[in-house]
Amino acid sequence: MSQLRIFSYLPNPRIWKATIAARLCGVTIDVRGAAPGTLQDWLWDFDAHPLSEAERQDPALQRSGRTGFKSRLYKTPAFLEAHPFGTVPAAFSPDGAVGIFESNSIMRAVARLGADAYPLYGHDAYMAARVDSFLDVSLVFARDSQIYLLSLRDAVTPEIHARTRDAFVTYIAGIEQALMPARQFLVGDGITLADICFVAELSLFANEKPRAKALAGQGLAPILHDGLDADYPRAMAYYARLCAHPAFAPDVGPYLDKIAKAAAEHTSPRESGEREGPAARSAVGG
Q1: Global pTM value
Q2: 144 and 232 co-located in one domain
């Protein structure tokens, strides 16, 4: 029996926060979901599953879609009781009675469940509070990055681009500073939730890469530009090192490979028009 169930659109780098943590501390997780464009055909519930025809016709289950989901969605009253904001990713206790929402909180739940096996929250209250500091800062960047990635699917504005660029610079510069002079991790001497969260958020932001042509068409430069390794050598080397770690690689590797392939297709001279690949679509949702 799993210790935590998660329902989400897939793939979703923000649920890696939980899956990576689970690998490190031995917590068993059950992940359910499908591509963003197909979640409108699922019943949102602890027992989430593709809709039956009877469920599709039940007016008590029908809800209006919000950010990232424009069509009608189907959510049980029990789902909304557990998740009052009605978003995904949505996590549940094994009996479905307790809902946990927001990816950082879901990750924290995994860390607490596996605290005896691996100290992902540090060894004392001060280290835990420092971890929380990095997680809170990530929320500021995550808000701007979500708006930006969604706008890239339609028409990004110079204002959104500038705000996100500034948020990214603030975020990555802080990570660079935290790793000085030669730290291997953000907090303490081992992997914590702070490291996991950084990798997940930067990987999600990589969805900008397949949209370089669209940005150029509006006179905008990619925020993830080729000079990042020179500008932020510690942060980028640390990111690459963690991406290759056995607890991270099963999630991060295939996802970044898809993004790289989509980016190559969008920049190929043979490309006759814009296509939105699976990596770009993964930005949809909460």
Answers
A1: 0.90
A2: yes
Dist CA 186 CA 235 (whole Å): 10
Res 69 pLDDT > 90: no
Q: Is residue 120 part of a domain?
A: no
Mean pLDDT of the 144-172 span: 94
CATH code of the domain containing 202: 1.20.1050.10
Confidence band of 267 (pLDDT split at 50, 70, 90): low
The residue with tokens 């789902």 is 79
d(CA 235, CA 199): 10
* Region for 219 from its dihedrals, namely left if φ exceeds 0, alpha if ψ lies in -120 to 50, beta otherwise: left
Domain final position from 113, 144, 167: 113
Q: Which domain holds residue 80?
A: 4-113
3-class SS string, 67-109: CCCCCCEEECHHHHHHCCCCCCCEEECCCCCCEEECHHHHHHH
Beta strands at 99-101 and 90-92: parallel, antiparallel or unpaired: antiparallel
Q: Work out the average pLDDT over 12-39.
A: 96
Q: Decide if 286 is inside a domain.
A: no
User: If 0-12 CB within 10 Å is exposed, 13-18 middle and 19+ buried, where does residue 277 land?
Assistant: middle
Answer with the one of 69, 88, 113 that is the final residue of a domain: 113
The phi-psi region of residue 217 (left if phi > 0; otherwise alpha if psi is between -120 and 50; otherwise beta) is alpha
Cα angle 116-119-121, degrees, rounded to a multiple of 5:
120
Of 122, 120, 124, 90, residue with least CA distance to 105: 90
